[in-house]
Design brief:
Layout (H helix, E strand, L loop, with lengths): L2 E4 L15 H14 L3 E5 L5 H9 L9 E7 L11 H8 L4 E7 L2 H8 L3 H18 L2 E7 L1 H7 L1 H13 L4 E6 L9 H11 L4 E5 L6 H10 L4 E4 L13 H11 L7 H4 L2 H11 L17 E2 L2 H9 L17 E2 L7 H10 L9 H15 L8 H12 L7 E10 L8 E10 L2 E9 L2 H13 L10 E9 L10 E8 L4 E8 L2 H20 L1
Parallel strand pairs: 1-2, 1-8, 2-3, 3-4, 4-5, 5-6, 6-7, 7-8, 9-10
Antiparallel strand pairs: 11-12, 12-13, 14-15, 15-16
Length: 519
Amino acid sequence: MIKLYDTTLRDGTQAEDVSFLVADKIRIAQLLDELGIHYIEGGWPGSNPKDIAFFQDIKKVRLSQAKIAAFGSTRRAKTTPEKDNNICTLVEAEPDVVTIFGKTWDFHVHEALRISLEENLELIHDSLAYLKKMVPEVVYDAEHFFDGYKANPEYALKTLQAAEQAGADCIVLCDTNGGTLPQEIPAILAAVRQRVSAPLGIHTHNDSECAVANSLVAVDHGIVHVQGTINGFGERCGNANLCSIIPALKLKMGQECISDEQLSRLRQISRTIYELANLVPNKHQAYVGNSAFAHKGGVHVSAIQRHAETYEHIRPERVGNVTRVLVSDLSGRSNILAKAEQFNINLDSKDPVTMEILENLKDMENKGYQFEGAEASFELLMRRALGTLENHFSVIGFRVIDTKRNEDEKPLSEATVQVKVGGHIEHTAAEGNGPVNALDHALRKALESFYPKLREVRLLDYKVRVLPAGKGTASVTRVLIESGDKESRWGTVGVSDNIIDASYHALVDALLYKLVKDQ
């Protein structure tokens, strides 16, 4: 069985734009435990108060099977392990496992530590031997192992032997600079196996876009412990992405690591950790991304409707994902019919309305519309073509005024709208933080007395794209709005050479879709 070691809470937080509160780290540890991760590296307790607090708080949390690891370095030169503050802090944190790193590359020993090669071997051995007496399990990370081996193979192997002789439970070979290629891994592992019999692990970085590949090749050549992070978070270009490694191990290599049920939660946990990091999920991420099983070309869609495996390398449900059919100017009848089925709309391939929708779609995209991120607007388009869209309300007109009274004051935005609901005309005005916000407030104010459920709608994201037309500020703009309520999210689109008008169309669709959805 392959042991999975997650370092999202330590190595992952070294990524640009990634930072977690202690409460976030506790929540992530619980999620990783639910996913079936065997080791969770909580941080470096000797480096900052946040990590010290994590190791105190995690003791109060009941985990089902994961072991908590504390990370640190070998002792400093000219001191003993029991007097080294870093080593003492690791022991005081009372983790299940201690992981320490040491220097493997002779270049680092000379230039970073400024000690002799023999002294470095003593640092590694003494630190691990002491920790083996103090904690239940010790993992040794051989930092820069692959670069060190390529520069001085004999010395790099001696550092591993020093760790093994000290009793390390697992020796992890680190591609710290991320420059190793997959074809280099087998021969190096074979050389290590001739000199070291302890269980081996792998820790790779993604600077050459090979972190996942290197990890999988290492497993194929006897590695039993794989380190990485969720979503590949990590310094520079990131760490090996466990969201790709885990399904590859289980579904493609036949290696047991987590259960089928745990694997089916992979996408949900990936996205939750993106949310906790306050980052937008990578839609093109393998296995768990929104686009991982999204089909746009009509030929592809027609094929997957007969046999999904024609254009899908695994069943998306295995990792908690779903097949998605996109609509665009590349779409054929198959896309339209697949979307109709998704929206529970009864549509036949021979129905003339199908071709009408397709032609309408291509015409609108030619004008600048894009429905790939605005499926709610596309569903409304289909329902209008079929004559099944209920006329909940109509907007007679609107006006938006921006006023700036003094140079040091913010402009004041006010919107006035007239809407017709049934035979009743409502005329309202509202202020807002900018013209779009004012228009949103005015529309809601006019409609919420008739449709109280609209109070549940929240505007979650607002994007403006200036379409290339060579007209400068007179160019056509496309507005994409993401809205949501307690149950779901949906996207709507508006296009116009007037940004307020484009926003108006997207806002109206967002509110109308809520009413259609709740029916």
